[in-house]
């Protein structure tokens, strides 16, 4: 297993298990350099969004990398203020133009805006059927959002990207997604590094000669979750990628599962100020 290892979505498209998130990576030189460094290390999946305001730089870095476009998996998302059917079609075209890569691999609804996300989904189905995007999905959707969407959707979401880490072990959502062939993907997979000093994580890390961050990412991977840790520092990007040479035992997994506190670093989707 390596950074090029993939999981197959329910429509047959393959997505790498590990990618680079670029939330809060400054547009301009920092974003270009961050993405280039990750691609040099072997990352083949980059996760951006209209809201991040760095799609242009992501596209530039990929073009300048010299890698084949088809070897890189690019995700973007439609923001809340651009949701609705017509608005989303326009937002998608804007993202496509900023990226300048010909097509997008995965396009997500960023948050489940009440009263709008079903119309937004119709737009995603349209761009998918037109072949402008290889896979479509959602982000920050809870079970009830997914159920509501799937009642009317022609195409089932391929991905649900949510906040997920040991202090927010959303087991019910994970189980629901597995039952419905929706790939769960974790944003903030390290809990924004807020509890890397946890004694349980560090005891397990010491056993394998790894860091607490690597143990968390391996735990998510063994739960069959796609992960997109963010770092602008090449040595951290390398550390985050170095999780394929060890495996946690069932006992280790249970210990980490037990760290759950339903504690979020971001907003709860039902309480987001839409």
From TrEMBL:
Keywords: NADP, Oxidoreductase. Residues 29-260 form the NADP-dependent oxidoreductase domain. InterPro entries: AKR, AKR5G, Aldo/ket_reductase_CS, NAD(P)_OxRdtase_dom_sf, NADP_OxRdtase_dom. Substrate binds at residue 110. The keyword ATP-binding does not apply. GO terms for molecular function: oxidoreductase activity, acting on the CH-OH group of donors, NAD or NADP as acceptor. It comes from the Bacteria. CDD domains: AKR_AKR5G1-3 (cd19157). The active site is at residue 52. The record marks 77 as: Lowers pKa of active site Tyr. Belongs to the aldo/keto reductase family. This is Aldo/keto reductase. It comes from Salinibacillus kushneri.
């Amino acid at each position: 297993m390596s950074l090029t290892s993939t999981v197959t979505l329910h429509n047959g498209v393959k997505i790498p298990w590990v990618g680079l998130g670029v939330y809060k990576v400054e547009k301009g030189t920092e974003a270009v350099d961050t993405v280039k460094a990750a691609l040099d290390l072997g990352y083949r999946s980059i996760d951006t969004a209209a809201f991040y305001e760095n799609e242009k730089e992501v596209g530039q870095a990929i073009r300048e990398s010299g890698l084949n476009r088809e070897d890189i998996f690019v995700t973007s998302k439609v923001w809340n203020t651009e949701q609705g059917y017509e608005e989303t079609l326009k937002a998608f075209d804007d993202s496509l133009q900023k990226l300048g890569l010909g097509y997008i691999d995965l396009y997500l609804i960023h948050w489940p805006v009440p009263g709008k996300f079903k119309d937004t989904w119709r737009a995603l189905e349209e761009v998918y059927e037109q072949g402008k995007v290889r896979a479509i999905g959602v982000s920050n959707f809870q079970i009830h959002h997914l159920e509501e969407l799937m009642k009317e959707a022609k195409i089932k979401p391929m991905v649900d990207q949510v906040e997920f880490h040991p202090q927010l072990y959303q087991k019910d959502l994970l189980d629901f997604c597995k039952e419905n062939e929706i790939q769960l993907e974790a944003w903030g997979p390290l809990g924004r590094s807020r509890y890397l000093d946890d004694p349980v994580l560090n005891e397990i890390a010491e056993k394998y000669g790894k860091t607490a961050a690597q143990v968390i990412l391996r735990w998510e991977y063994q739960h069959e979750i796609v992960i997109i840790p963010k770092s602008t520092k090449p040595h951290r990007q390398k550390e985050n990628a170095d999780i394929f040479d060890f495996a946690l035992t069932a006992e280790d997994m249970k210990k980490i599962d037990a760290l759950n506190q339903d504690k979020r670093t971001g907003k709860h989707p039902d309480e987001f100020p839409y």
